[in-house]
Design brief:
The protein is of the alpha/beta class and 399 residues long. Helix content is 43%, strand content 12%.
């Protein structure tokens, strides 16, 4: 969900300005597109999406890349390119996508359609200076440059082993030359890379491509909606409140959240549990569980939020001025978590390596440094131009 919402926001905004927009995504997101009046083309079924989201292996630091590539990235590459064939002679078509939509990059190269890569997380941009933190294994920031170079080459080789055969097979069928560079050197647009996060969250690195442009976080509005009467009543009650959200991850990893849920109840908090996973639940009247609620609305009532360190939830918490407790699980979440923690607004909880009970909750929330950091970044985020407006301006100025 977090990877699709920014594109819903961009498509909706461009449509409001008179542009024709078509969202290509898994069929699971068709209702969201319809709700926002966006034309939609399904690249796969909701069942396929749920199968991957419910697979614990999809979040494994090694097996996850292979599974995601085989079940998602490579099949969608073919489907995307097939769909875009109808636009190959268009002078008005502009492509906007992520690294997961390799079909866009193929169409950019084959059909000469202009492309903008939206980078939703700094984890996507490798660097030998501030090296992103990978799940499973990462190098300390002080590591010598030769070691970082070796580590980056190993990551490149691993991605190439998984993705390059499928990419080159399709390129051969299309009479294109094999991909000479690494996949990570190719999959982003060579002309336009737009980062949907600010430089104070991820400083521009000297070895990032020259075409990188920084914006601000894209505050979600596509998911705005009415609160149910019982949730409104729960939010209006007196006392401190925590929001615990597992996001769109449906596989495993519920035990740490169950521990956190108990800790907040022991600390006499009310808890809004945003999770459709029925294995994570509580019969306490101090817990209100819903599968969905507009996050910004709920965070306006919260004293703290617990989440997987998704960049969408984390940036929403910054805008709300709410401290964060983070339980990263896979992909870019470990790097996001480290950045939120360095900014002083969050603490990373490492299941099995540290206990976290009512005392730790009180210490964290009682910290004047955390409160000051939350207030400072909320003001900094809110005083900047909205990220969506900056992205829209960059896209329109380069058409």
């Amino acid at each position: 969900m977090g990877d699709v919402l920014p594109f819903v926001e961009v498509a909706r905004t461009l449509r409001q300005r008179g542009h024709e927009t078509i969202l290509l995504a898994n069929g699971h997101f068709q209702p969201l597109a319809a709700k926002n009046g966006i034309e939609f083309h399904a690249l796969g079924t909701s069942e396929e999406y749920l199968k991957l989201a419910q697979s614990e292996d999809a979040y494994h630091p090694l097996r996850g890349v292979k599974i995601t590539a085989e079940q998602w990235i490579l099949p969608y590459m073919h489907k995307t390119l097939d769909y875009l064939r109808a636009y190959r002679d268009s002078r008005d078509t502009v492509l906007v996508g992520t690294i997961a939509t390799l079909g866009l990059r193929m169409a950019n190269e084959l059909y000469k359609l202009p492309m903008h890569s939206l980078v939703l997380s700094p984890f996507i941009l490798p660097s030998l200076h501030l090296t992103p933190i990978s799940p499973g294994f990462s190098l300390p920031a002080w590591s010598p440059r030769p070691l970082k170079t070796l580590f980056q080459s190993i990551v490149n080789r691993g991605l190439d082993d998984v993705l390059k055969p499928g990419i080159n097979k399709l390129r051969s069928e299309l009479k294109m030359s094999p991909l000479a560079s690494s996949v990570r050197s190719w999959w982003l647009s060579p002309k336009s890379i737009i980062c949907t996060f600010p430089e104070w969250f991820a400083p521009v690195q000297p070895d990032w491509p020259d075409v990188v442009r920084m914006t601000n976080f894209i505050a979600p509005s596509a998911q705005k909606g009415e609160l149910s009467p019982d949730l409104q009543e729960f939010l209006a009650r007196d006392g401190r409140m925590a929001v615990v959200t597992t996001g769109s991850i449906l596989a495993g990893t519920q035990a740490p959240f169950q521990v956190m849920l108990k800790a907040f109840l022991d600390a006499k908090f009310r808890v809004v549990l945003l999770s459709g996973n029925q294995s994570l639940t509580s019969s306490s009247p101090q817990v209100k569980q819903v599968s969905f609620a507009p996050l910004a609305t709920v965070l306006a009532h919260a004293n703290v939020v617990v989440h997987h360190a998704g960049i969408g939830t984390g940036s929403s918490a910054i805008l709300a001025g709410v401290p964060q407790l983070l339980i990263p699980h896979g992909h870019d979440q470990f790097d996001n978590a480290a950045r939120f923690e360095r900014l002083g607004v969050a603490k990373v909880i490492r299941p099995g390596k540290s206990s976290f009970g009512p005392g730790e909750i009180e210490t964290f929330l009682g910290s004047g440094e955390v409160a000051a950091a939350c207030a400072r970044l909320k003001a900094r985020y809110g005083s900047s131009s909205p990220g969506l407006e900056q992205v829209r301006h960059l896209l329109e100025s380069r058409v």
